[in-house]
Structure prediction request, 53 residues.
Amino acid sequence: MKIDMNKYGRPPALGNKTGSSQASFNFPDDATHTATLLSPSCMKWSNGTTWTK
Prediction:
């Protein structure tokens, strides 16, 4: 899986599914974070942030 961060001037984050609703992504300019899918349009990250589409 890949998260395109180009819009923010950052390299892409690459990840893998680790459970039925969890994934781990490596942000090469930051760290590796896990995310939990809360709904088809909402993810909660291990750093406490939530992304909503």
